[in-house]
Amino acid sequence: MRALRWSAGRKVRITAVGDAIVVRADPDGADIITGQGFLRLPTALRHRYRIRNRDRLLVCAFVDRACLAVYTMAALEEVLAARHAGLLDQAAS
């Protein structure tokens, strides 16, 4: 939030995009940054991505695009496995 200069009360739009949840500032957004500076993901998205309380998430700030991307550990495992499949095969040779 700090990198994007988003503070408490900022309205945001939270959408599902592939294996990520994308958050953008939007004056007409249905969600807000909490008074404590936290982002609460909507229940529907938590269910869609199977996010439970205390699950770890990777939250990336893309300052040049003024947005956040949120990834579950399952999504990261898939991305890393695909990215490094060839590398791991080479290392085994």
Can you walk me through this structure?
- The longest helix has 20 residues, at 73-92.
- It is elongated, with a radius of gyration of 16 Å.
- It has helices spanning 43-48, 73-92; strands at residues 11-17, 20-25, 31-32, 57-62, 67-72.
- The model has no long low-confidence stretch (mean pLDDT 92).
- It contains two helices and five strands.
- The chain has one domain.
- A five-stranded antiparallel β-sheet has the order 3-1-2-5-4.
- With 93 residues, it is of the alpha+beta class.
Q: Low-confidence spans: pLDDT under 50, at least 5 residues?
A: none
Helix content: 25-40%
Cα(first) to Cα(last) distance is: 44 Å
Oligomeric state of this protein: single chain
Total helical segments: 2
Give the ordered list of helices and strands: EEEHEEH
Strand order in the sheet with the most strands: 3-1-2-5-4
Structural class: alpha+beta
Question: What profile does the largest beta sheet have?
Answer: 5 strands, antiparallel
Shape: elongated
- Bin the strand percentage: 25-35%
* Rg, Å, rounded: 16 Å
* Total discrete domains: 1
How many DSSP-defined strands? Answer: 5
For the residues shown, what is the average pLDDT? 92
